[in-house]
Structures are given as structure tokens and as C-alpha cells.
């Protein structure tokens, strides 16, 4: 997966899920130069809610496509 991301020059990845899903994906990709968008869809969405991301998928996408980014260190 890492090779494909680098070869295809993928710069942005959107994760749909809760804290566990987000954590697993970010852990796998944290050494790659990609930005992560989150659409909260799990039973635990603490990271997304703490970042002010709406549980509404359309509102979360507006946040992602609105280029509202923030750096977090919760996965280091």
C-alpha cells in the first residue's frame, strides 16, 4: 500500500470510521507525506469531535474540502 501511495503521488486520504479505525489507518500511514480527512462513523469519535468535525458526513466533507487542516500529535 505504501508503494502505491508514493507511486501514484496520493496526497490526501479520507477515513470513514471511529477512533479505532482512524487510529489503525493513521498508524499505518504516519510516515508518509499525506493529509488525513476524517468522517466520523463509529461508536467512538473522540478525535474527530475534539477537532470540531461534524458527525454529519456532508458537513465533515465540507470541512475536508474546505481545506481546514490542523496538525495533531495524538498518534506519535
Sequence-ordered SSE layout with sheet pairings:
Blueprint: H1 2-7, E1 12-17, H2 19-29, E2 35-40, H3 46-50, H4 57-65
Parallel strand pairs: 1-2
Mean pLDDT: 88
Integer-rounded radius of gyration: 12 Å
Helix content, binned percent? 40-55%
What is the fold-level CATH name, i.e. the topology? Rossmann fold
Largest sheet: 2 strands, parallel
Proportion in β-strands = 15-25%
The tally of domains stands at 1
**Count of beta strands:** 2
**Strand order of the main beta sheet, please?**
1-2
Query: Total number of helical segments?
Result: 4
* Name of the CATH homologous superfamily: Probable inorganic polyphosphate/atp-NAD kinase, domain 1
What is the name of the CATH architecture? 3-Layer(aba) Sandwich
Overview of the molecule:
The chain has helices at residues 2-7, 19-29, 46-50, 57-65; strands at 12-17, 35-40. With 76 residues, the protein is α+β, with helices and mostly antiparallel strands. It has one domain: Probable inorganic polyphosphate/atp-NAD kinase, domain 1 (Rossmann fold). The chain starts with a helix and ends in an 11-residue tail after the last helix.
Amino acid at each position: 500500500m505504501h508503494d502505491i501511495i508514493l507511486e501514484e503521488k496520493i496526497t490526501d486520504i479520507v477515513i470513514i470510521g471511529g477512533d479505532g479505525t482512524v487510529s489503525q489507518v493513521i498508524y499505518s500511514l504516519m510516515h508518509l507525506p499525506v493529509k488525513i480527512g476524517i468522517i466520523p462513523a463509529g461508536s467512538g469519535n473522540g478525535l474527530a469531535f475534539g477537532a470540531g468535525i461534524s458527525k454529519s458526513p456532508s458537513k465533515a466533507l465540507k470541512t475536508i474540502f474546505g481545506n481546514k487542516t490542523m496538525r495533531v500529535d495524538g498518534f506519535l
